[in-house]
Amino acid sequence: TRQVANAGTDLAYKGISTAANAAVNAADTAAGAAGAAAKGAAGAAAGAAKQALLASFEAATAMTFEDEKKIQRLEDAGIDSLQGLYNAGDDESAYQFKLAAFYQQHPADFEQVFVKLDAGDKPGALALLEGASSALQDIGAVELSERVRHVPDQLDDPEGVDDAIMSCQVRHIALLEGIAVYLAESSGNEE
Length: 191
Known about the structure:
This protein is mostly helical and 191 residues long. The protein has helices at 9-34, 36-60, 65-76, 81-87, 92-105, 109-118, 122-139, 142-149, 158-189. Helix 5 packs across helix 9, helix 6 runs antiparallel to helix 9 and helix 7 packs antiparallel against helix 8. The protein is elongated.
């Protein structure tokens, strides 16, 4: 099931629902003093206001088919875009910036880990793995971040660590390709 039908909409609905419920409660409190008839009218008015607010919000945040395709590309690449968007403060342009920065700054993380290990620099390899895991988590690549976080468990087994790093590297390449397509499509749609 797709959890990203409207990125950030769940958070917005929670905010709207909280505000609308507060308005209904305030109307109920005020109406309690005026009597049952006034209470019913105030509740109906608050309910209508809530519905109108939700309808206007849905209209304003309706995603285009192209937006859904872009987000699906991120998900196909292993990125939980809702998590990444949340990590960017629910700011889509900030999230796109984070994705672009990740794409530019982390293209060869796992090759560098191999270089460090071949040179006998385990602390350097660990630092690279920790940085990669953190950066992946930040953009919403939660599963790959978790996988990278467990690579150090294999450092004493040269064959096992090579397999673990290669597995991460393959997923990382697919992730970079998904980000590249997403960014290209995003920049092509801005006018």
